[in-house]
Amino acid sequence: MKDFAELITSIDQSNKTNDKVAALKSYFSEANDADKIWVLALFTNRRPKRKINSTLLKDWVTQWAAIPSWLFQESYHVVGDLAETIALILPFDETKATIDKPLHHYIHQLIEIGELSNEEKEIQLKEIYGELNTQERFVFTKLMTGSWRLGVSQNIVTRAISQAYNIDKTIIAHRLMGNWTPQSTSFSELILEERKDDLIARPYPFFLAHPVTYEEVKELGHPKDWQAEWKWDGIRGQIIKRKNEVFIWSRGEELVTEKFPELVEMSANIPNGTVLDGEILPYQNGEPLPFALLQTRIGRKNLSKAILKNAPVVFKAYDILEYQSQDIRSNSLQNRNLLLEEIIRGVNHPNLQLSAAEKFNNWEELAETRTKARSLKTEGFMLKKLGSAYEVGRKRGGWWKWKIDPLTIDGVLIYAQKGHGRRADLYSDYTFGVWRDNELIPFAKAYSGLTDAEMRKVNAFVKNNTKERFGPVRTVTPQLVFEIAFEGIQESKRHKSGIALRFPRISRWREDKKMEAANTLGDLQELLEKYG
Prior knowledge:
This protein is an alpha+beta fold and about 525 residues long.
């Protein structure tokens, strides 16, 4: 556990990717296999389910520390992170904290604790915390509560293992995907053992695109070398058909087959040894539906007939990665397109559609077509070089995403809350309001988009202009205006404004604008009517 705690500290202390790769490489080179497989699980979203209620945990820690509950709450508000608060506030016994049990021992304990009564959980947790030093307590609580914000992507983990064992990064990326668990797979079986055939359900790593501006688009070369297709707002996925079995994977590496029975039914006509890449899209009467409809499927264990009817989907295929059981990712996009069209013609099913390319003679003409994107309920264009291979991860050169500019609205800061981690001492999480008559109605929350200097200025303003306090939240004197950018807008019964925004963030601080000039709820409703 001490080595893992030191790993987390090393990662947390640097923003540099190479430093994080180096720390992980060192850990994977030296740790025992039982711990390594769990570290892989933790960093690839295969963490054990949360077993402890946070409210109970706070109550227990307060009792163990022999302090009043108000002092714990005040400490929590100041620190801004539950795991760090617990690590600092509990009494420390140096004689017990010299124990060094492995990481997998504590994870197995956490899994077993979930089956105990609350009284038994409290006894075991108190004993565990007594064995850990401050750093280990912090990490253990993070394991238990699942609140990780370490900036470690799967790509970083892949690079680290690749360097530690001198195995090609693409092979590691491939092996990390799929439906494995630490309970059923060892580190050696997953990473080190050579195998002739991967599991039939295993998807390919996704090829991702970098954003591009119009000025950069004009420098891409001759348009005849490029393909432009609409960028759909759905769930990126792969449909796999091998040995008469169908598997549907999301880009987040979740097996979502059971969520889309109509796509499984359609896939009965796909030849074995085929893997398609595309977008699972809510779709009806020839046009996309709001993205939120997909969430009604993903969030349900059982899909009713009503959900299937109200959230119909199609698969917009835009690439083929495997054909006749052969990996064809190294073929040119132009050649892959021919095979993809052949597959779609053969399947001949309304739930499988080709993400067709748009015709254009020059970049100016394509830019004009792009102005129709929002009315067509797309996010802009994907630009793909016709001679490009299907690569792994986010690579420059072959694919680019040319997204439309976000929608914006000017809102007034009305609530603020301290952040977490490095922002624990700053009011960095904000709620914004728009005018309805003479009242400011909250419509969005955002915590990204400001520079560090701007955030410190807002933090000082919040402290000097607090009207009321509700736990960690402060109501502030309305004065500061910010431009809020967002990707989509939809009706919502859960929000006071009746509207929910997709991916809201601060695009700029409108120091030039008085709060009276901020937008109104009516302005938001007009955007909803036009783009919702």
